[in-house]
Structure formats: C-alpha cells, structure tokens
Amino acid sequence: MNPVQNIQSDRQQARQLGDSNADVCFLALADADGKASVRTLVLRDINDNRFTLFINKTSPKWKALTDGTGHELLIWYPSMQRQYRISGSLQEVDGEIVGSNWQRRPTGSKYLDYVYEELGNQSSIIDSRKVLTDKINQLKQDQDAENMQSPPMVAGIELVADRIDLLDLNHQDRVHDRRLYIYDGGTWSSQVLIP
Ligand SMILES: Cc1cc2nc3c(=O)[nH]c(=O)nc-3n(C[C@H](O)[C@H](O)[C@H](O)COP(=O)(O)O)c2cc1C
Predict the structure, then answer these.
(1) Which residue's CA is the closest to the ligand 1 atom numbered 26?
(2) Taking the CA atoms of the chain, what radius of gyration do you get in angstroms?
(3) Do residues 160 and 89 lie in contact, with contact meaning Cβ atoms separated by under 8 Å?
(4) What is the residue with the minimal CA distance to atom 11 of ligand 1?
(5) CB atoms within 10 A of CB 194
C-alpha cells in the first residue's frame, strides 16, 4: 500500500466531513541548540511523495529548516481517526511556482508578507499592535492589491517523504494499528509497530 495515496484519500474525506484539520499540518523543528518548536501550517499540496508548505524566509523556522537540524511533519485527521508522522528530505520550490501560487493568497496575507519585508522579520518583537496595523494601513494606501508581486522572502518547501508512521485508531478495544512505511528503490514497504 502507498501511504501517500492513503493520506490523499483521508484528506479528501476529511474535507467532505468538514474536518478543520483537513488542510493543515503540524511542522516540528529542532534548531542547532536542540531547541524544539512546532507550528500549524497550511498543507498546500501533496504530489507523489511531496508535501508542499509555504513559509517566509524571515522566520526563525527557515534557518532551522535549511540548517537541517531536525524536522518532522505531523498530520492528524480527527474525522478519520488517523495520524501520520512524515519525514524525509527538504527541497525549495522553484521561485516562479511560488510567485504564481502567491497570487492566490488572501489579500490580508499578501500585505502581511510585505510587512515582513518592510517592518521586521516574522516572529520578531514590535512595540505594539498599533505599529503593525499602521504599517498595514500605509501599505494598503501605497500598494494596489491587484498589482502586488510575491516578495523575495516568500518561500515554498517540499518535504519529500521517505518515512511515514501511521497510527490508525479505527480498531476495537484500543488495539490501534501502527505501521511504519519506508520508501526505498521506488517502492514503499511496511512494518507493523507496537502502537
Ligand atoms: C490554521 C493555521 C494555518 C497556518 N498556516 C501557515 C502557513 O501556511 N505558513 C506560515 O508560515 N504560517 C502559518 N501559520 C502560522 C504559524 O503557525 C506560525 O504561527 C507562524 O508561521 C510563525 O512561526 P515561527 O514562530 O516558526 O516563525 C498558520 C497558523 C494556523 C493556526
């Protein structure tokens, strides 16, 4: 069985069931000092073994990602009662693809991406919320939303999965089914784990 196809099928059903996790995932990172962090991200796309995320290079998570100090992606669909823990290598998405995807972002998110360029890095401290809202109001006056282009620090990342740990809770008496899928030589193989 191909676990990526299983995720795609679960995701589709989760959407139909109104699962609020259907379009998101959770990215855990470790930095060079071993400090762990985790955040919710929109899971933009799943193609073959590739899971696409959009982030901003001004964020501290970009350094943790590019330093290669440790990452894992988690998907949990409550409506399907299945958790997937995904690991693999990371590749940056081509800038042209990022740029065309960026055009489909909600207008408010576009202005926020401009804020990271002009006010300060994502996740940096500012004096007050007013500093932020003033900046956005100024950007709205200066920039016509229709003509905005993707700023250089917007990035796409693909996690190319080669290891997927599935925990399936759809079994009686809490005897969950847990399987580890490994991608090697062009195919997925699986082993059963104690849940
Ligand atoms: C539902 C949801 C979706 C989110 N999607 C994204 C996303 O696609 N990209 C992103 O950079 N941050 C997204 N965020 C915000 C991140 O969780 C996080 O707060 C932000 O990226 C700052 O993270 P950092 O401290 O690692 O810089 C989302 C948050 C939520 C709750």
Answers:
(1) 61
(2) 19
(3) yes
(4) 55
(5) 5
Domain segments of the chain as ranges: 3-103+151-193, 104-149
pLDDT in tens, the chain (195 residues): 899 999 999 999 999 999 999 999 999 999 999 999 999 999 999 999 999 999 999 999 999 999 999 999 999 999 999 999 999 999 999 999 999 999 999 999 999 999 999 999 999 999 999 999 999 999 999 988 889 999 999 999 999 999 999 999 999 999 999 999 999 999 999 999 999
Which protein residue has the closest C-alpha to ligand 1 atom 5? 41
What pTM was computed for the model?
Answer: 0.95
Q: Is the Cβ atom of 138 under 6 angstroms away from ligand 1?
A: no
The CATH number of 3-103+151-193 is which of 2.60.120.200, 3.40.50.2300, 2.30.110.10, 3.40.50.300?
2.30.110.10
Our answer on whether the CB atom of 36 is closer than 6 Å to any ligand 1 atom is: no
Which residue is listed with tokens 């970009």? 62
171 C-alpha to ligand 1 centroid (Å): 33
Q: Which backbone phi and psi does 99 adopt, to 5 degrees?
A: -60, -45
